[in-house]
Amino acid sequence: MTARLGRRPGPGRRRIRGPLLALALVVVAAVVAGGGLGAYFLTTRLAPAPGGTVTEGLVLDGPLSLLPPFASTQNSRDVSALLDRGLTRIAADGRPEAELAESWEVDATARTYTFHLRPNLQWSDGVPLTSADAAFTLAVLHDQALSQTPVGQAWSGVGVTTPDARTIIYALPSPSAAFLSLTTIGLVPEHYLKPQQVAAMPEILDAPTSGPFRFDSADRNRVVLKRNPHALEPPQVDQLELRRYETSGEALQALLSGDIDMLAQLSAEDATTVSRLPNRRLVRAQSFSYVQLLFNQKQPGMGEVGVRRAVAQGINRQRMVDDVLRGYGHVTGSPIPSAISWVDSADAGPGYDRQAAAAALDAAGWARTGASRAKAGQELSLVLLTSDVDPYPAIARQVKADLADIGLKAEVKQVGEGQVVDALTKREFDLAITPFDNGPDPDVFALWHSAEGTATGTNFSGMAKDPFLDKALEDGRFNADIGARRTAYAEVQKILRESAAAVFLYSPDQLVGTSNRLNGVRLNPGIESWERYEFVQEWYVNTRRVGR
User: How confident is the model at residue 29, as a pLDDT?
Assistant: First the structure.
């Protein structure tokens, strides 16, 4: 019996082995299926899937306090926004809308606000969230430990009653249509914190939360938050890890190298870097902040409206936005940012015209004398106050150069960030570059009403009392009707523009960089830094295919 031997492969008949055989079978299967794989992709789409971890970078800015009443640093406010929610939040147009509250009423005097909580609210530990928590939060805000802080002073004199578990009635010491912007502050849990001394609360990190996440762990380098299943809108991702860096440069490098998925509060230079990378995204929104060139109208020349208008016309504001901000902002003409879109924004004011500005100074009697101007033997030599924090030194340099072009001499006085308010209060300036963030409400009473023009007030302009401006500011603050407020603030902007009370320079953008791995990130048209988390429940890193 002879064994039959298989034929040896001849030329062109090589044997297919191992991985090549597997690949061939897949190809054959796809052909036999008659395009089934293609049909699968045509009839399905990628959709968010739950799970995963998102990492974000934070630049160290001091101790981390997570309870909202004690969140005084930027990092603390940002992280607190992920953990706790308030009765109201800010809508896309800057107006307040319901959050933990489902509705509210305001009485005709704008002094009594009644809120109604949503049903079945819970803290992250499953304990019901009730009106007692709102009353306890107010008690914390009234404690001596917070009496000298901005948040404590904002809530000073406010009373509260809670007729039932879902009703909260606040009684204000004076009318305030802007009160709804205060009620965005996150509530704190009475059942967990009541046994604690208020003075010790800034150190408490693990209190139950009402927001999309709950605290898990923290050390100097990171804070880990876990998904809160009891939140109104639980997030898609399981975990958010916040990594802390010593410098903004280190944080940026972490984003560029893929170590983190998100970094907010980018500088214009860093935003430009992120925008140029194909695997990174730049997300931007308007802010509620603005930068102005403030006149001290008590100083020589600064009390003349013709001089102020000439200065306004001689400053090239668009060049500031283009060069210093690299386009991440816009020229503004008002102390009410356009992000508050329910208020009719003022136009940008007079355009840049160096020759017209110089002619206006000539007409006002301030004649050129070499590198400066003088009138009746008095030289107009100006002190320009600015902070040493970027980008304000660069802004000051441009203002100085623009003023020189129209014959005005200015010396820059650069001081530390903490010294700016002191110099403003003492009126130690002729011109001052002053950034303001008044939040999402257009109430600028404290900055422009004559009652705030005292030695301890916050109207630093030194302008003469204007009863029409005062009346418009009062109408905007004391009237809760949205139409009446809109009319009042249109009048405020008109008066400030006509009197050239300040040169409103620009409003910067909020800039956020993300990796392509992180999806679902979107922002309202105008935000505070922590409001980048408004839609955090939509963020996702995992996907799955679902039917179209």
Answer: 42
